[in-house]
Amino acid sequence: MIIAIDGPTASGKGTVAAGVARHYGLKRLDTGALYRAVGLAVIDVGGNPSDEAAAVAAAKALDLTAIDETRIRSSAAGLAASKVASQPAVRAALLAAQRAFAADPAGAVLDGRDIGTVICPDADVKLFVTADLPVRTERRLNELRSRGEQISFEELQAQIAERDRRDTSRADAPLRQAEGAHLLDTTHLSIEGAVEAACRLIDAAL
Ligand code: C5P
């Protein structure tokens, strides 16, 4: 069983994907982590994430098993991620690894921006997870503050809106609700509530 979960930043898709994977006993790939790791690898050596040659080289050199789960969560890595992700050559370089993960006969949960549209268009179930911008900003603010990053609500909300704009307007694999994807709005849901709602949608779709 392949479950494809897409949605914008801080919509709750990562939390939902982790909970769904646990519930159904499936392995999970957070594809945003790949773009974050590539963006981080470029800025770590003083490179420009918008420089295609540098970004593609980092994508080709990426080791999925050696991603620094803490450092990729910084806002700097997130911003670099959205810049490398807008380049078709970077997306192409990361395609095979994602498809290989999804090809496991035991099934998998993949979450990102283009799972239902590009990576796994034949997924058994597709979810599009969303939430209102101020709620997403509040969630990301709490996450960044718990990591010791200081940023104002207004500045972060502007950053997230800019990230949304870049993700939805890019020519290659823009963020959008895939055909057949079930919409899950987590604005008024707790973590447990969002995972339960996702499992109900999945059970009903199978
Ligand atoms: O989901 P997360 O915030 O970790 O993703 C970081 C960035 O990676 C996003 O802003 C998006 O530009 C990019 N991304 C993507 N396609 C995916 C997953 C993430 O373009 N499948």
UniProtKB/TrEMBL annotation:
It is found in: Cytoplasm. It catalyses: CMP + ATP = CDP + ADP; dCMP + ATP = dCDP + ADP. GO terms for biological process: pyrimidine nucleotide metabolic process. It holds the Pfam family Cytidylate_kin. The keyword Membrane does not apply. Its EC number is 2.7.4.25. NCBIfam families: cmk. This is Cytidylate kinase.
